Amino acid sequence: MISYDNGYFRLETDHTGYYFRVTKFLHLESIYYGERLIDKDLEPLSVKHTVIIGTQTAYDPSDPMYALDTYPLEWSGIGKGDYRHSPSEIEMPDETYTNDFRYVSHRIVRGNLKPSTLPCSYGSEDECETLEITLTDEPTQVTLLMYYTVYPAQDVITRRVSLCNHNEKTLVIRKLMSMMIDLPNRDYQFITLHGGWIREARRQVSAIDYGLRVNESLTGCSSNRHNPGFLLAASGATETSGMVFGFNLIYSGNHYSAVEKSERDLIRVMSGIHPQCFAWPLHHEEVFETPEVVMTVSCEGFGGTSDHFHNFVREHITRGDWKDQERPVLFNSWEARSFHFNESSLLSLARQAKRLGMELFVLDDGWFGDRDDDTRGLGDYTVNLRKLPGGLPRLAERLKKIGLRFGLWFEPEMVNPNSDLFRAHPEYAVRIPGREPSMGRNQLTLDLTNPDVREYIISHVSDVLDSCDISYVKWDMNRNMSDMYSPTLYRQGTFGHRYILGLYEVLTRIFVPRPKILLETCASGGNRFDLGMLCFSPQIWVSDNTDPAERLDMQGNLSLLYPLSSMGAHVSSAPHQQTLRDTTLVSRFNTASFGSLGYELDLSFVSRAEKQEIKEQVRFYKEHRTTFQYGRFYRHDPHKDNKVHWSVVSQDKEEAIVGFFQTRSFPAEGIDHLPISGLDPEKTYQVRTRPQRVYVRRFGELINFLLPVRIHPRGFVARLIDRWYRMYDAVETYSGSGRLLMSGIPLYNAFSGTYFNDKTRLLLDFGSNLYTVRTMEHPVPTEKE
Ligand code: GLA
After folding, report:
1. Which residues contact 178 (CB under 8 A, 6 or more apart)?
2. Ligand 1 pocket, residues with Cβ under 6 angstroms
3. Is 466 designated active site?
4. Which of 260, 308, 375, 453 fits 296 for a cystine, CB–CB 3.0-4.6 Å?
5. pLDDT tens-digit series, residues 561-601
6. 544 is catalytic
């Protein structure tokens, strides 16, 4: 995995190689990151220095050619002639900003050397190996420890640094990134996920030009504006070809990643904690640890890079009892009842959910304190006996009798000023003396840098969790930070990071002793979807927007960095509460099934026919849940602008599910192909459309051309037909070798306005189909699901 050979550090995974060396003045020079190489001598790949550039600053008078500005580096300081952005800005003990960390020694150890203050990746001594390099700024005796951990099977290398002050005088860290690398310029595109509330994870592709491009968050959390993960893709990269680098930070607070194209055409990449308002004093012999960055590269396009990330997150980030377990199909009360419920309305929903096959009932916001709307009660985790007179234990007991597990919502990091907690402890809320605090969703943030506040949260949440049988927690966080200040801090520049450290401590102390609880984190939807949270919660709520047309974008884009099992995906009612767009129940399911499935709608408004449909969906999902949650996921390059294709293949390649999604329907469209990937080319498989119910009301007045009698298209008879008569969309069945099927099957024609029979595919706007693929030993059942 790691060796120091012939002057080169060689970090090798199954398919990738990462090489660098120590220069004659003891800096670390990046040589190569890409497909694994067999060569012993990597000199041909080094950047050459054969002229002196007029304005260059020579590092040492003995060698005018040695200018740091012209070297690709693994780390760079300030003040010694590298004029690119530095990964650190430190007020050094000598009160200057100059730092020059140079190689002293290294050691290679099996396993991962974990930081003591932050969540990080994990792996056994057989699964990973770590290189620790010690660099020192000699005049000040400040030491930088650089860590590289290699995970060969997932083709991942992680990096982080720690700073240690051996000087008697205090230094102040104003910026300290977790990693830096200089790559050769290959005309990369910078791919980031930007967004906002109910429009999370939009893919942004930017060219890398001279200067700096930044992907950052300043909201106090990793944010829905810019996910901390990003890619650098060679131009022209597709889902299956081209070089794509991926980087992601294991951190949930303000993050900063920058890509700089320098004057010498090198691409500097760095990632870490955001430096804005950051000032961390480091006293004699103190150490500061930065969060870990996960890096990977693939020459098999975006799909290759995503696959590395998916395997890595599943194996070396997600932990605890739920790591490999199938996630339950849940029912969540929020969109159905919001704050307005009582025990009997909840139990009525629960009974219906159980009849449809769901396994877990999640009581969302509104169960505690005086919380009848979002202006009050947050912070008071005593049950509201007006709504739940028997308390949580009786509700849990009754749900158990129905046959459902019980899950509960909390928002423990927040407080409403109109709450008993705030009245008793106004000093627990984050605000600045002498300033009116700014509000977000009528609430203030609790000061998690304060140990008393952490104790309060831990004891109150733990008491509730131990009061009855709770199998799942939704941990929400619904405002961005403002008025950052804590009276307990010596330097306010530590606030943002200390808050996140406080959050990690609270999560550890509540959930590590309760490993049976499945934790799903949430932040107004996907305002904190990051690897830091995934170290605690195996799944995260993607977005408050459950419209499948939007989810296709969000889930598809998040899948660049995160596995399907990590994405909470629900079927809700339509028109959707966030877009007022009307979509079919089947498309809502088809999209949500590529994730950890739930339902979130008032089941009493669901027709009998739709209930039957939901029952079939849940049964289908459970049957294929391991494949959906833990299979190998493919996004297929669409062959048309109005299509999205996903598929997921079981690890043993025995089955696959293909999702065929249409965004906008085009009239009289040409042939559609079904893309399939990842099958065993030699095995024989059968492919079959999952039968989907069609409602006659979708045909409008056209229905009168199909029926022998004339009816009102929205009248009583049409409704009666929809209720009692089951009509199915075209079902196609094919069989052949994996090789044949993977070459793309032309499908039946889609509805084109003039003709309809049982071989017409009815996709329409935002329509979709699922196709089940199974080996002939276990063929797809032929009866209607
Ligand atoms: C946030 C969450 C929602 C729901 C509400 C409850 O908006 O994202 O899913 O839990 O809070 O107030």
Report:
1. 159, 160, 161, 249, 271, 272, 273, 290, 291, 292, 293
2. 334, 364-365, 409, 476, 478, 522, 524-525, 544
3. no
4. 308
5. 999 999 999 999 999 999 999 999 999 999 999 999 999 99
6. yes
